[in-house]
TrEMBL record:
Its main location: membrane. It is a multi-pass membrane protein. Coiled coil: none annotated. It is found in: Cell membrane. Keywords: Cell membrane, Membrane, Transmembrane, Transmembrane helix, Transport. Belongs to the 4-toluene sulfonate uptake permease (TSUP) (TC 2.A.102) family. It comes from Streptomyces aurantiacus. This is Probable membrane transporter protein. The chain crosses the membrane at residues 12-38, 44-62, 74-93, 99-119, 167-187, 222-239.
Length: 240
């Protein structure tokens, strides 16, 4: 199925803004893009969003890799393995309608926990569980940021971005490998990724000059508001 000019412009804008947020605050591309992609073309979520996010996080890691908490990443990735397998199973077995509703539910749950101000202690067990949840959510919906953002929220800005980006780069590759084995990565996904890659690159390039002017708290609030709006429209579309 081809994309109209309006759909392409909407997806490009979403990817650009999501990439800018991903670079600036450590997550955001999946949370914002997944509901929009599922609305425009459900076959694009989660695979295309994950492919784009992998490229964006690779660029962040290349720039800020020295600030990452590698031990924390290791425990989180150990937890991510079973989560990835469970997420790939969901993608393979769930009908598109239910997968779409799951995407909306993940967005709303992530936002609700953030608003509630839940701050888990950064223990080995909590990092493992967050990694597992991130693996399941990230593979099934491309939204793996909220669990890790919660467990690592005590880290400073640069260290948070570096740690989360390192985790998401390796974790996204794991998810893509599992989705490939489940038959969810095909020529259609790769073509759409290539079309939208320039928008992701634009977001990354704009993050440096614009990022210094962004208030992190307000930016997160705005990102969550956009994500909730997308999830609400997604639910409405499936219910009606």
């Amino acid at each position: 199925m081809g994309m109209s000019g309006v759909e392409f412009a909407l997806l490009s804008l979403t990817v650009g803004v999501g990439a800018l947020l991903q670079v600036s605050i450590g997550f955001g591309l999946g949370m914002i893009a997944a509901p929009v992609f599922a609305l425009v073309d459900p076959s694009l979520a989660p695979t295309v969003v994950l492919l784009l996010a992998t490229g964006v996080t690779a660029m962040v890691v290349a720039r800020e890799r020295h600030g990452a908490d590698l031990r924390g990443c290791g425990w989180a990735l150990a937890g991510r393995v079973p989560g990835v397998l469970a997420g790939a199973l969901l993608v393979a077995l769930l009908p598109a309608r239910y997968l779409t509703l799951f995407i909306a539910a993940v967005v709303l749950a992530g936002v609700a926990l953030s608003i509630a101000g839940y701050v888990p202690r950064e223990r080995r067990s909590s990092v493992l569980l967050a990694g597992m949840a991130s693996g399941l959510m990230g593979t099934a919906t491309s939204i793996g940021g909220p669990p890790m953002a919660m467990v690592w929220q005590r880290l400073s800005g640069a260290r948070l971005r570096a740690t989360m980006s390192t985790f998401f780069l390796v974790g996204s590759l794991m998810s893509l490998a599992a989705l490939t084995m489940a038959g969810a990565v095909g020529a259609h996904s790769l073509r759409r990724t290539a079309l939208l890659a320039p928008a992701a690159l634009a977001g990354v390039l704009l993050a440096r000059p614009l990022g210094r002017h962004l208030d992190v708290r307000r930016t997160r609030t705005a990102a969550m508001a956009v994500a909730v709006a997308g999830a609400a429209v997604l639910v409405g579309q499936q219910v009606v």
